[in-house]
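My current task is to audit a protein record that another person submitted. My question to you is simply how this chain folds and whether the tokens agree. This is what I was given:
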Amino acid sequence: MEILKKVEEAVLILIKASDKGSYKKTEEGYSFEFGKEGKCIVDITLMGIDFKIRTIKWIQGNYEPIEGSELYNQILYEDLDNINNEEKVKKIASIISTINNS
């Protein structure tokens, strides 16, 4: 039950950290997309918060690009245990901003 509270807290912090974006429920938790064309993908799982950058790959023999994502950063819940909510929001907002401005 403790881990579900951490997931819920992460969702609320993520909403506070970035007011623009969309999210969906996944098998593992929640997935948020922020920035222009969803450049920053944030997955909230039972382990922690994964920050990913949307990628487009061209594979030889394909006529269309294949969308994917690459892990940029990860925050485990235990890394957030000793900081207050304001610092958590700043930390998460900073990572999202860095991805969207790259």
The first strand starts at residue 22 and ends at 25. The chain has a mean pLDDT of 85. The chain has three helices and five strands.
